[in-house]
Amino acid sequence: MTRDVLDYLDRHQSETLDELFRFLRIPSVSADSAHKADMQRCAEFVLNSMQKAGLTAEIIPTNGHPLVYGETTQDPAKPTILVYGHYDVQPPDPLDLWTTQPFEPEVRDGKIFARGATDDKGQVFTHLKSIEAWNRIHGSLPVNIKFLIEGEEEVGSDNLERFLKANSDRLKADVAVISDTSQYGDGIPAITYGLRGIVAAEVRLIGPEKDLHSGVYGGSVANPANAIAALMGSLVGCDGRVQIPGFYDDVAELTDQEKSQFAELPFSESGFLKEVGSGALFGEEGRSTLERRWARPTCDINGIVSGYTGEGPKTIIPSKAMAKITCRLVPNQNPDRVLDALEAFLRDRCPAGLKFEFRRFHGCEAFAFDPTSPWITAAGEAIEEAFGQSPVFIREGGSIPVVSSFQQILGIDTLLLGWGRNTDNLHSPNEHFHLQDFRNGIRASACLWQKLGNVQAWQVQA
Ligand code: BES
Ligand code: MN
Ligand code: MN
Question: Is 256 a catalytic residue?
Fold first, then answer.
């Protein structure tokens, strides 16, 4: 059965790539309102691809960018799978660091270069194409499929929760599938059973109503740039520990078993340093790099601006300063409590005479699933068939807000089956997706429907 589908996919490789290129040419940058029309255009592209794959599909407007939803019911006795992905991409800046234009896809050295190639258009496309192939060859699928592709993942999925709550009956499924993570390493596919959560905030310090002469007035009023530097400098200690009181209170500690599972994964410190282009590791004492990345919370400054940064000196006290901060969370931490603690910590330390403003952005909880369900076993078999290598079980440090919403609102777990690699430059210049990963991903997806279709209700309840 699956064999014929795989043969069909092999025969149609070049058309599939052409179609992916059309998807990648649409600059669907969700963060930038200048791209509002492109977002609509991209949603229409996804709609057409769903319809071509044999799904009954529609575009669903939200308060932000539209969702695209499609489904096909084959047989109520078969499992129902909810596939999620996102068609929005990160801004392509800085443009001058791209070898070719971000929205003019090109294959070089066996890799597809374009913004969104791996995060997440290329990965979404693997599922659309495998479903299309099943329908072309057999006129049916081994599972019922619901397909939800959103346009606001990269800006925090703010409008998705409301849609999930209002449509929880319609979205009812046995398990969710998301391909928006990475393999563990070159030639080592993975199933990800945990992700970190996130909270994001912006701090503004407002001082004198205009920039002041730093000689005439310096030393007599608080300097917003000095203050932001001091505040930001107080967040993380030299020992890598976050200094906010209560920050670690709810943190779920790793079990010894999980620690040793992490330790058994192949890991080269020098290879890792080369990957990130850094001279030394840094982080909480007594924790391995994988523990720090996958299972410990963080507080990172994403950007700071204040005052004069042009050529040559300028003697001023800047009138204002601002910084952007994100914290990555681990299971059990509550996003609102972490933001409350962060805000109180900074507000208390803000010098007199400066106005303190704190703005909260998106947030989501972390999660870690039990990696032994029959769904995971089935997914592992599909991956092994397509990649020729059985997957390792990992957690990741990034966040996908919808996963904990699926758990809380729909009561289902998610299979995170990433075909990408962390070295694909996601969110960076020269983002790419290996052709080999794209092809293996499509094949694994084609095998997945058959394997998931074989999971019996009694196995899930057991
Ligand atoms: N696909 C990533 C998340 C990811 C990448 C997880 C690699 C694991 C490995 C996703 O598109 C992403 O970038 N998420 C954001 C979420 C945020 C904007 C709410 C993140 O993690 O920064
Ligand atoms: Mn993504
Ligand atoms: Mn992303």
Answer: no
Please state the atom number of ligand 1 nearest to the C-alpha of residue 363: 19
Give the separation between CA 88 and CA 119, rounded to whole angstroms: 9
Please give the structure tokens belonging to residue 323.
């910084």
Q: How far is CA 435 from CA 17, 20, 299, 381, 438, in A?
A: 9, 11, 35, 22, 5
Q: What is the arithmetic mean of pLDDT over 261-288? A: 96
The ligand minimizing its distance to the Cα of 124 is: 2
Tell me the pLDDT tens digit for each residue of 191-216.
999 999 999 999 999 999 999 999 99
pTM above 0.85, yes or no: yes
Residue-wise DSSP of 349-414: HSPTTSEEEEEEEEEE--EE--TT-HHHHHHHHHHHHHHSSPPEEEEESS--THHHHIIIII---E
Domains within the chain, CATH numbers bracketed: 2-195+367-461 (3.40.630.10), 197-251+297-364 (3.30.70.360)
Nearest-CA residue for atom 1 of ligand 1: 180
Looking at the predicted structure, is the pLDDT value of residue 144 above 90? yes
- Ligand 1 centroid–CA 273 distance in Å is 21
Best residue among 294, 400, 425, 433 to mutate for probing ligand 1's pocket (most ligand atoms within 8 Å of CB) is 400
Distance 181 CA to ligand 3 centre (A): 9
Interval between CA 31 and ligand 2 midpoint (Å): 14
- Going by pLDDT thresholds of 50, 70 and 90, the confidence category of residue 173 is very high
pLDDT digits (tens, 9 = 90+) for 18-37: 999 999 999 999 999 999 99
- Give the closest ligand to the alpha carbon of residue 431: 3
CA of 399 relative to ligand 1 center, distance in Å = 5
Q: Name the band, by pLDDT with cuts 50, 70 and 90, for residue 462.
A: low
Q: How many CA atoms lie within 13 Å of 320's alpha carbon, on the beta-carbon side? A: 11
**Cα–Cα distances in Å, from 81 out to 58, 60, 78, 161, 431?**
18, 20, 10, 19, 29
What are the pLDDT digits (tens) for 328-375?
999 999 999 999 999 999 999 999 999 999 999 979 999 999 888 999
pLDDT digits (tens, 9 = 90+) for 294-317: 999 999 999 999 999 999 999 999
Residues within a 6 A CB radius of ligand 1: 119-120, 153-154, 156, 180-182, 195, 198, 362, 396, 398-401, 426
